Every structure is written in structure tokens, then in C-alpha cells.
Amino acid sequence: MRPYELSLSAAADAIRARRLSPVELADSVLERVEQVDPHLRAYVTVTAERARRAAREAENDIAAGRYRGPLHGIPMGLKDVIDVAGEATSAGSRVRADHRAEADSTVAARLSAAGAVLVGKTHTHEFAYGLTTPQTNNAWDTGRVAGGSSGGSSVAVAAGTATFTLGTDTGGSIRVPAALNGVVGFKPTYGLVPRHGVTSLSWSLDHVGPITRTVEDAALVLAALAGHDPRDPASLTAPGTEYRPVAGADLTGLRVGVPRTYFFDHVDAEVEAAVRRAIDRLRALGAHLVDVEIPMTRYIRATQWGLMVPEATAYHETSLRTVPELYQADVRILLEAGELMPAGDYLRAQRARTLMRREWARLLRDVDLVAAPTVPATAVKAGQETITWADGTVEGVSDAYVRLSAPANITGLPSLSVPVGHDAAGLPIGMQLLGRPLGEKVLLRVGHAYEQSQPARQLARAA
């Protein structure tokens, strides 16, 4: 196995045991970037010299006995809404053409302190306001969408051009592209990972989290990210920093909620079948399956858009009025729509969120987590605007992709997307696990147990 193919945990073990040097790993990943990124376009900027310099420093530190932990010497990509001192943060927009970060974001600083090596900044849908990331091609089929808005981050991990990446998730933007590209995407509890220095889409819905090849890898990255930062008003104090799941796949006694409503409505038959097989696998590992009713389903879409649209417009108010022509049409239309929304609609969305959180808390008293599809369909063809369901219902692609992921953003609950197979066209399918607030350890334990019971996954075929 070539170094770029290694999972984070495998690479970390090899580096710690001195079987692999950070320089060898960085060189392998950068060679992979040169080989496949021209047709995948995961990266907006590749910081090759910076990466090689950091890898040499990591190698020297480790040789001198200054090993910092499992991220030391590991190549990473950061979504291009995350500030890194001295590097551009374009957020995928001409509005930010001349922007260069003066300081590290909190998450970039924490990863740097852990010894991670920056390979580059990954493409995002403009200002993270979309579900396709049109600049980037799917890692399994370059004629299909990568998903968004963290499309570049997901494709980089799936293709082996980064060992791990960070994305942001406002309505599913970590989990959607992770599912569509066959990798692990983790949206932690709202406030667990600080957002200082990260370009905002919607302050009350935004999350930062890892995209990795395995669940164990996601746990290792989360441990470096979690923790209070007073510069983020929503920041929480982490209950602990050890998230790595223990070995073993015994889920005896765990109660897994299986939705009777909403999450399996208007879902592709192959997606439903793969997710139900994965849920059955959890039962075979000892979990107890419990049918559950998802609360307030008729309000989910209105609440998600009712919160996100006016908050995004407020953030962009000045530039929308001074340089509207610099925005892409799809994003500009959404921002302009936000100017037309009455304050009463926003307040009603806030009230609905409060009620939704209360009802989900009641649901999660009866089960430890909920298992469901991450997205209702696999990656659509580039340029496709709608999906037609079996009953003739027509749904916009973005609406379809956000529909099943939005509840975790509205409520702030942690949500983990894990690959659970492929459809007949060979496109990846993801299962989503939703847990209690600060219930990251449970989700990681269950996702890891499922993963350990399956054959090892390979890198994406289009790469």
C-alpha cells in the first residue's frame, strides 16, 4: 500500500513506529495531487512548499523525541472558508479575490499545534451556500457532482490527495459530500468545535468538522479540534478530549432508533436498501432496534431556510449592495431573497427550532441514537437540477440533498455519515447516525463497530 492510501490512524502508527517518515507521506500525497487533481479539482490552492517544509520539521521533531500525537506529520486539506495565516481565503467567490488571512482560525491553529501538515485549501460552493460545489468533480464519477458545500474536502480524502480534511456544515455540507464520495463526515454538536476565523454562512447553524477515511480517523481529528474558545460566542466546553473508539464491535444494549417517518420518504430504493442492511448489521452486533416517529417533520424545510437565508443575507449585506455582480447567480438570488423575508418569519423559525429541539430531546430519551440515510439519492449528473421520485414528485437537487441532513443543524445534534455500500452504478451510499447533544462518543463507537464488521474500503475509482 502506498503512503497516500493509508488512513490517518494507520499513517500515525507508522510514523510513531518510525516505519514511515512525514516527508515520505507528504511527498506521496503531493505526487497524488499532481496525478489526479487536474481532473477532480478538489483544490483551489496547493501549498506544496509549505507542506514539504512542515513535513521536514515534523520529521526532525519526531526524531528528536518531540512527538506531538497522532496528527503529527499528517497531510490535511482545509476548506477554503477556513483562515490560515498568510494564505488566501477566497470562499469560492470573486468577492474575496484579494483576501488574504492575517491570522489562523482557531481550528487551523489547533491542527498546526498538533503537527498536521497543510497540503492546500479545498474548493467550496461559493460562500458555502450550495449543495453541489460545481468546481469539483465526484471522486467516483467525474461526470457527477461532488456534493457540497465541502465538496473539495470530501473529494480530496476520497481520492488520496489528503489524509484528512476539514469542512463546514450548515445544512449538511460535511455529510452530503462525504456520503456522495464514500468517506466519513462528522458534524459535531453545535459549539463543540470553535468557528473563529471561519467564514460564516449562517451563525446559528454553522458547524466545523472532520472528513476522513475511517470513523477512528474522525475521532482523532475531533480530539484536536474540540474545546472552548471565547472568541466564538456559541463555543462549548468539551466534556473530554478522548474520542477514539475502543476496539471491538459489541453493541449489546444500545438502542438504535429507526425512523418510521420522514427519513425514508422519497428515498431511492437502492439507498434505502443499503441503509436498512447497515441497520440490520447494527442489530447483528447486538443493538436493539426501536421504531421512532420523527417530530415536526412538516416544519423542517421551512425552519432550515427560515434561519439560514436571513442570517446569510445579514452577513453579506454590505458586499451584496456594493458588488452584487461579483456573486454567482444562484448565490446572489438567495442573498437577495433574504432581504425580502419579514422579521416575523425569522422569529417563527427560531420558535420552531426551540420546539424541535425539545421534541428531539424527548425522542432521544427513548433511544441512544437514530440511524437513517444521509442523502436520499446518490450523486446526480453535473448540471442536473431536479430529481423525480417514483410517485412522480419532482424535487430540486439541493432541496433533496439538504432534506435529511437539516434536522441535525436545526437542533445542533451531532451527526456522523458512514459509507454503507454502492448503488448499481457504483456510486457511494451513506448512513447517518444522529445522537444526543455531546453524544459524539456514542456515534463514533457505533460507526466504528459497523465499519469494523465490513471489508476495508478502497480509494475512489475515478481517482
Q: Taking strands numbered 1, 2, ... along the chain, how are they ordered across the largest sheet?
A: 1-3-2-4-6-5-12-13-9-7-8
Number-wise, the strands total 13
Please tell me the overall pLDDT.
97
Looking at CATH, which topology would you report? Amidase signature (AS) enzymes
What shape does the CA trace take? globular
- Main sheet: strands, sense, barrel: 11 strands, mixed
N-C termini distance:
15 Å
* Percent in helix: 25-40%
Task: Give the tally of structural domains.
Answer: 1
Beta percentage is 5-15%
Count helical runs.
15
CATH class: Alpha Beta
Order of helices and strands: HHEHEHEHEHEEHEHEHHHHEEEHHEEH
CATH superfamily: Amidase signature (AS) domain
Gyration radius, to the nearest Å? Answer: 20 Å
What does this structure look like?
This protein has 463 residues and is α/β, with parallel strands linked by helices. It has a single domain, classed as Alpha-Beta Complex (Amidase signature (AS) enzymes). The chain is 38% helix and 15% strand. The chain has 15 helices and 13 strands. It has helices at 8-16, 22-40, 48-63, 106-113, 151-159, 175-181, 215-225, 269-284, 300-315, 317-322, 329-339, 343-366, 397-403, 406-411, 440-452, and strands at residues 43-46, 75-79, 117-122, 164-169, 184-187, 207-212, 255-259, 288-292, 369-373, 386-388, 394-396, 415-422, 428-435. Strands 1-3-2-4-6-5-12-13-9-7-8 form an eleven-stranded mixed beta sheet, sandwiched between helices. Strands 10-11 form a two-stranded antiparallel sheet. The mean pLDDT is 97.
